Amino acid sequence: MIAAKDDFPKLTPEEYFAWEEKQLEKYEYIEGEVYAMGGGSKNHSLIAVRLTTLFSNHLEGGSCETGNSDLRINIVGTNDYTYPDVTVTCDKRDQTTTQYISYPCLIVEVLSQSTEAYDRGGKFRMYSQNPVLQDYLLVSSTEVAADLYQKKETGEWIIVNYKEGDIIKLKSIDLSFNIEKIYRGIFL
């Protein structure tokens, strides 16, 4: 996320939707401020595509939907909106919405140097308030590594660190896969 312009006026959510529709880039909307989404690297894009494809294929034929970085998420209980790299929702309330979803069970962010601190901190704090979210996966674009923030039945979040040779286990969509699967053909 790139900082909002100081001289840009605060917008209502309705103004934000109308304004962003006319833009060439995507913008996150937090507390009335718009923030430009930075471009990602080739590795960032390839990893996100691999994960989107993996999840979509795994969930084919079911009622869950896999979204890419064009799918806006409403932070539950707020008028804030973000664009994660990959999302999965299995919630019926999201099936009839057209501009965003609100109840993802899985969110993935592919890390870049400019957004890593925000993805691990402020963004996770926002996402973790969602009662439906079970897995928040942060994937490195510079090494074979991922961190999974996973909600336990008690509501506590634990962090599982994955490295080369590990099997990532996503309880939200009942999927386990070798971490190398998302890095095949990628030069780090």
Automatic annotation (TrEMBL):
Family annotation (InterPro entries): Nuclease_put_TT1808, Restrct_endonuc-II-like, Uma2
All residue ranges annotated as the Putative restriction endonuclease domain in the record: 13-173
Coiled-coil region: none
Pfam (any one): Uma2
Protein name: Putative restriction endonuclease domain-containing protein
Biological source species: Dactylococcopsis salina (strain PCC 8305)
